[in-house]
Amino acid sequence: MLTQFRQFLLDRLVLRPTRDAVAPHTQRRSEVQLSQYSIEFFVQKNFDEEVKPDLLILKFPGTAGRAERSSPFPADHFEDLNVEIWTWNPPGYGKSEGQARLTEIAKTAAEFCKYAECNRGKNSVLWLMGNSLGCLSALHIASKMNQGSNVGLILRNPPPLISVVKNVAKRYPFGWCINPVADSVCDPMNAMLSAPQCHFPALFLQSELDTLVPPHLQNEIVEAYLGEKRTVVLEAIGHDGTLTKNHQMQVIDKLRWLWSLTKQTR
Fold first, then answer.
1. CB 204, CB 121: distance < 8 Å
2. Is the CB of residue 231 less than 8 Å from the CB of residue 204?
3. Are 206 and 231 in contact (CB under 8 A)?
4. ∠244-250-251 over CA atoms, to 5°?
Protein backbone atom coordinates (compact mmCIF):
# COMPACT_ATOMS: atom_id res chain seq x y z
CA MET A 1 0.00 0.00 0.00
CA LEU A 2 2.83 2.40 0.86
CA THR A 3 4.58 1.64 -2.43
CA GLN A 4 1.39 2.37 -4.37
CA PHE A 5 0.99 5.70 -2.57
CA ARG A 6 4.58 6.64 -3.35
CA GLN A 7 4.07 5.71 -7.00
CA PHE A 8 0.95 7.88 -7.05
CA LEU A 9 3.02 10.81 -5.76
CA LEU A 10 5.74 10.10 -8.31
CA ASP A 11 3.20 10.21 -11.13
CA ARG A 12 2.04 13.61 -9.91
CA LEU A 13 5.62 14.89 -9.72
CA VAL A 14 6.80 13.59 -13.10
CA LEU A 15 3.88 13.49 -15.53
CA ARG A 16 2.29 16.54 -17.17
CA PRO A 17 -0.72 15.20 -19.10
CA THR A 18 -2.98 17.46 -21.16
CA ARG A 19 -6.21 16.79 -23.02
CA ASP A 20 -6.78 20.11 -24.75
CA ALA A 21 -7.16 20.23 -28.53
CA VAL A 22 -3.87 20.54 -30.40
CA ALA A 23 -3.70 21.02 -34.17
CA PRO A 24 -1.92 18.04 -35.81
CA HIS A 25 -1.11 20.02 -38.98
CA THR A 26 -0.45 17.54 -41.81
CA GLN A 27 -0.42 14.43 -39.65
CA ARG A 28 -3.19 11.86 -39.94
CA ARG A 29 -4.91 10.81 -36.73
CA SER A 30 -5.45 7.12 -36.05
CA GLU A 31 -6.29 4.97 -33.05
CA VAL A 32 -5.94 1.39 -31.90
CA GLN A 33 -7.83 -0.57 -29.28
CA LEU A 34 -5.32 -2.31 -27.02
CA SER A 35 -6.12 -4.65 -24.14
CA GLN A 36 -7.22 -1.90 -21.77
CA TYR A 37 -7.29 1.39 -23.62
CA SER A 38 -7.99 2.98 -26.95
CA ILE A 39 -4.78 4.79 -27.85
CA GLU A 40 -4.54 7.58 -30.39
CA PHE A 41 -1.50 8.16 -32.55
CA PHE A 42 -0.58 10.41 -35.45
CA VAL A 43 0.96 9.29 -38.71
CA GLN A 44 3.22 11.12 -41.14
CA LYS A 45 5.31 9.82 -44.00
CA ASN A 46 7.57 11.11 -46.77
CA PHE A 47 5.96 9.04 -49.55
CA ASP A 48 2.54 8.75 -51.13
CA GLU A 49 2.47 5.22 -52.47
CA GLU A 50 0.34 2.59 -50.75
CA VAL A 51 3.33 0.43 -49.88
CA LYS A 52 4.96 -0.64 -46.65
CA PRO A 53 7.73 1.71 -45.49
CA ASP A 54 11.42 0.93 -45.61
CA LEU A 55 11.62 2.40 -42.12
CA LEU A 56 8.89 2.72 -39.48
CA ILE A 57 9.66 5.02 -36.57
CA LEU A 58 7.68 4.94 -33.32
CA LYS A 59 7.98 8.19 -31.41
CA PHE A 60 7.44 8.51 -27.67
CA PRO A 61 7.20 12.18 -26.54
CA GLY A 62 8.36 13.60 -23.24
CA THR A 63 6.38 14.23 -20.07
CA ALA A 64 4.59 17.35 -21.38
CA GLY A 65 4.72 16.35 -25.05
CA ARG A 66 1.84 15.67 -27.40
CA ALA A 67 1.81 13.55 -30.55
CA GLU A 68 0.06 16.33 -32.47
CA ARG A 69 3.23 18.43 -32.26
CA SER A 70 5.50 15.71 -33.63
CA SER A 71 8.01 16.94 -36.22
CA PRO A 72 9.00 15.11 -39.44
CA PHE A 73 12.47 14.47 -38.01
CA PRO A 74 14.26 12.27 -38.97
CA ALA A 75 12.17 11.34 -42.04
CA ASP A 76 13.10 14.70 -43.58
CA HIS A 77 16.73 13.51 -43.75
CA PHE A 78 15.97 10.32 -45.71
CA GLU A 79 14.91 11.35 -49.20
CA ASP A 80 16.06 8.00 -50.61
CA LEU A 81 13.93 5.92 -48.20
CA ASN A 82 10.22 5.53 -47.58
CA VAL A 83 9.88 6.56 -43.94
CA GLU A 84 6.71 6.47 -41.85
CA ILE A 85 6.41 7.94 -38.35
CA TRP A 86 3.84 6.98 -35.73
CA THR A 87 3.76 9.24 -32.66
CA TRP A 88 1.56 8.16 -29.78
CA ASN A 89 -0.29 9.92 -27.01
CA PRO A 90 0.15 7.72 -23.92
CA PRO A 91 -2.74 6.95 -21.55
CA GLY A 92 -4.14 10.14 -20.10
CA TYR A 93 -2.83 12.38 -22.90
CA GLY A 94 -4.91 13.84 -25.73
CA LYS A 95 -7.75 11.48 -26.61
CA SER A 96 -6.01 8.34 -25.43
CA GLU A 97 -8.03 6.58 -22.77
CA GLY A 98 -6.83 5.84 -19.25
CA GLN A 99 -4.97 7.83 -16.64
CA ALA A 100 -1.43 9.13 -16.83
CA ARG A 101 0.58 6.69 -14.73
CA LEU A 102 4.15 5.53 -15.21
CA THR A 103 3.16 1.89 -14.79
CA GLU A 104 0.42 2.19 -17.41
CA ILE A 105 2.66 4.03 -19.87
CA ALA A 106 5.29 1.28 -19.85
CA LYS A 107 2.81 -1.56 -20.28
CA THR A 108 0.76 0.20 -22.96
CA ALA A 109 3.86 1.27 -24.90
CA ALA A 110 4.88 -2.36 -25.26
CA GLU A 111 1.41 -3.24 -26.58
CA PHE A 112 1.49 -0.32 -28.99
CA CYS A 113 4.82 -1.53 -30.35
CA LYS A 114 3.48 -5.05 -30.87
CA TYR A 115 0.60 -3.60 -32.88
CA ALA A 116 3.05 -1.59 -34.99
CA GLU A 117 5.22 -4.64 -35.61
CA CYS A 118 2.24 -6.57 -36.94
CA ASN A 119 1.51 -3.79 -39.41
CA ARG A 120 4.92 -2.62 -40.56
CA GLY A 121 5.71 -5.28 -43.13
CA LYS A 122 8.30 -8.01 -42.81
CA ASN A 123 10.98 -6.05 -44.68
CA SER A 124 10.59 -2.78 -42.78
CA VAL A 125 13.17 -1.63 -40.26
CA LEU A 126 11.82 -0.41 -36.91
CA TRP A 127 13.28 2.48 -34.94
CA LEU A 128 12.14 3.45 -31.45
CA MET A 129 12.58 7.15 -30.82
CA GLY A 130 12.19 8.75 -27.42
CA ASN A 131 12.42 12.29 -26.14
CA SER A 132 13.27 12.70 -22.45
CA LEU A 133 10.72 10.61 -20.50
CA GLY A 134 9.69 8.92 -23.75
CA CYS A 135 13.13 7.31 -23.86
CA LEU A 136 12.10 5.10 -20.95
CA SER A 137 9.31 3.52 -23.00
CA ALA A 138 11.68 2.97 -25.92
CA LEU A 139 14.29 1.34 -23.67
CA HIS A 140 11.72 -0.86 -21.96
CA ILE A 141 10.41 -2.12 -25.31
CA ALA A 142 13.89 -2.73 -26.71
CA SER A 143 14.96 -4.63 -23.59
CA LYS A 144 12.24 -7.23 -24.25
CA MET A 145 12.87 -7.74 -27.98
CA ASN A 146 14.75 -10.57 -29.63
CA GLN A 147 18.35 -9.68 -30.33
CA GLY A 148 18.16 -10.50 -34.05
CA SER A 149 15.37 -8.02 -34.83
CA ASN A 150 16.11 -5.17 -37.24
CA VAL A 151 15.62 -2.45 -34.62
CA GLY A 152 17.40 0.77 -33.75
CA LEU A 153 16.93 3.49 -31.13
CA ILE A 154 17.21 7.28 -31.10
CA LEU A 155 17.20 8.66 -27.57
CA ARG A 156 17.32 12.37 -26.75
CA ASN A 157 18.15 13.39 -23.20
CA PRO A 158 17.20 10.06 -21.57
CA PRO A 159 16.57 10.41 -17.81
CA PRO A 160 17.66 7.95 -15.13
CA LEU A 161 14.42 8.82 -13.40
CA ILE A 162 15.42 8.11 -9.80
CA SER A 163 18.55 10.25 -10.03
CA VAL A 164 16.76 13.05 -11.91
CA VAL A 165 13.92 13.35 -9.39
CA LYS A 166 16.36 13.39 -6.49
CA ASN A 167 18.57 15.92 -8.25
CA VAL A 168 15.64 18.29 -8.79
CA ALA A 169 14.42 17.79 -5.22
CA LYS A 170 17.81 18.91 -3.85
CA ARG A 171 16.99 22.43 -5.00
CA TYR A 172 14.26 22.72 -2.38
CA PRO A 173 14.22 22.68 1.44
CA PHE A 174 13.67 19.17 2.79
CA GLY A 175 14.06 17.81 -0.74
CA TRP A 176 15.52 14.63 0.73
CA CYS A 177 11.96 13.69 1.73
CA ILE A 178 11.30 12.83 -1.90
CA ASN A 179 13.97 10.10 -2.00
CA PRO A 180 11.63 7.19 -1.09
CA VAL A 181 9.13 8.45 -3.68
CA ALA A 182 11.82 8.50 -6.37
CA ASP A 183 12.95 5.01 -5.39
CA SER A 184 9.42 3.70 -5.99
CA VAL A 185 9.68 3.99 -9.79
CA CYS A 186 8.45 0.80 -11.44
CA ASP A 187 11.10 -1.43 -13.03
CA PRO A 188 9.89 -0.95 -16.65
CA MET A 189 10.44 2.81 -16.35
CA ASN A 190 13.85 2.45 -14.72
CA ALA A 191 16.32 3.03 -17.54
CA MET A 192 19.20 1.78 -15.41
CA LEU A 193 17.56 -1.66 -15.48
CA SER A 194 16.48 -1.57 -19.14
CA ALA A 195 19.63 -0.16 -20.76
CA PRO A 196 21.91 -3.10 -19.83
CA GLN A 197 19.41 -5.44 -21.52
CA CYS A 198 19.29 -3.59 -24.87
CA HIS A 199 21.33 -5.15 -27.68
CA PHE A 200 20.34 -2.87 -30.56
CA PRO A 201 22.37 0.01 -32.01
CA ALA A 202 21.41 3.35 -30.51
CA LEU A 203 22.00 7.01 -31.23
CA PHE A 204 22.03 9.25 -28.16
CA LEU A 205 21.34 12.98 -28.62
CA GLN A 206 22.55 14.95 -25.64
CA SER A 207 21.71 18.62 -25.04
CA GLU A 208 24.88 20.18 -23.67
CA LEU A 209 23.11 22.74 -21.45
CA ASP A 210 20.35 20.48 -20.17
CA THR A 211 19.55 21.43 -16.58
CA LEU A 212 16.58 19.07 -16.15
CA VAL A 213 18.52 15.93 -17.15
CA PRO A 214 22.17 17.04 -16.89
CA PRO A 215 24.62 15.30 -19.24
CA HIS A 216 26.40 13.55 -16.37
CA LEU A 217 23.12 11.84 -15.45
CA GLN A 218 22.37 10.99 -19.09
CA ASN A 219 25.79 9.39 -19.28
CA GLU A 220 24.76 6.88 -16.62
CA ILE A 221 22.37 5.42 -19.19
CA VAL A 222 24.80 5.73 -22.09
CA GLU A 223 27.46 3.84 -20.18
CA ALA A 224 24.99 1.16 -19.07
CA TYR A 225 23.59 0.65 -22.56
CA LEU A 226 24.70 -2.74 -23.88
CA GLY A 227 24.32 -2.31 -27.64
CA GLU A 228 26.58 -0.45 -30.05
CA LYS A 229 26.08 3.28 -29.62
CA ARG A 230 27.01 6.74 -30.78
CA THR A 231 26.48 10.08 -29.03
CA VAL A 232 26.00 13.51 -30.55
CA VAL A 233 26.43 16.41 -28.14
CA LEU A 234 24.03 19.18 -29.12
CA GLU A 235 26.21 22.11 -28.16
CA ALA A 236 24.86 25.28 -26.54
CA ILE A 237 21.20 24.22 -26.22
CA GLY A 238 19.07 23.18 -23.27
CA HIS A 239 16.65 20.32 -22.66
CA ASP A 240 14.06 21.45 -25.22
CA GLY A 241 16.39 23.40 -27.48
CA THR A 242 15.99 23.44 -31.26
CA LEU A 243 18.67 21.79 -33.38
CA THR A 244 20.81 24.16 -35.42
CA LYS A 245 22.13 23.44 -38.92
CA ASN A 246 25.44 22.42 -37.40
CA HIS A 247 23.69 19.97 -35.08
CA GLN A 248 21.72 18.56 -38.00
CA MET A 249 24.87 17.89 -40.01
CA GLN A 250 26.31 15.88 -37.12
CA VAL A 251 23.06 14.02 -36.58
CA ILE A 252 22.62 13.14 -40.27
CA ASP A 253 25.97 11.39 -40.28
CA LYS A 254 24.98 9.27 -37.28
CA LEU A 255 21.52 8.55 -38.73
CA ARG A 256 23.26 7.01 -41.71
CA TRP A 257 25.37 4.95 -39.32
CA LEU A 258 22.24 3.73 -37.56
CA TRP A 259 20.56 2.86 -40.84
CA SER A 260 23.62 0.96 -42.07
CA LEU A 261 23.47 -1.31 -39.02
CA THR A 262 19.72 -1.82 -38.74
CA LYS A 263 19.14 -2.55 -42.44
CA GLN A 264 21.56 -5.49 -42.37
CA THR A 265 18.98 -7.88 -41.00
CA ARG A 266 16.23 -6.94 -43.44
1. no
2. yes
3. yes
4. 85
Length of the chain in terms of residues written: 266
Quick one: which of 129, 141, 114 has its CA closest to 197? 141
| Total-model pTM | 0.95
Identity of the amino acid at 182 = A
SS3 category, 202? strand
SS3 230: strand
Strands 83-88 and 38-45: antiparallel
Residues 6+ apart with CB under 8 A from 193: 143, 187
CB contact burial 125-153 (16+ within 10 A = b; e otherwise)? bbbbbbbbbbbbbbbbbbbebeeeebbbb
Of 119, 77, 94, which is closest to residue 37 (Cα–Cα)? 94
Quickly count: other Cβ atoms within 10 Å of residue 111's Cβ. 16
Distance CA 130, CA 42 (A): 15
* Residue 174 one-letter amino acid: F
> How would you write the pLDDT of the chain (266 residues) with one tens digit per residue?
898 999 999 999 999 999 999 999 999 999 999 999 999 999 999 998 788 899 999 999 999 999 999 999 999 889 889 999 999 999 999 999 999 999 999 999 999 999 999 888 778 999 999 999 999 999 999 999 988 789 999 999 999 999 999 999 999 888 898 999 999 999 999 999 999 999 999 999 999 999 999 999 999 999 999 999 999 999 999 999 999 989 999 999 999 999 999 986 54
For residue 27, give the 3-state DSSP assignment. coil
Confirm if 163 and 219 have CB atoms less than 8 A apart.
no
Query: Mind listing the domains of the chain with CATH numbers?
Result: 2-161+187-265 (3.40.50.1820)
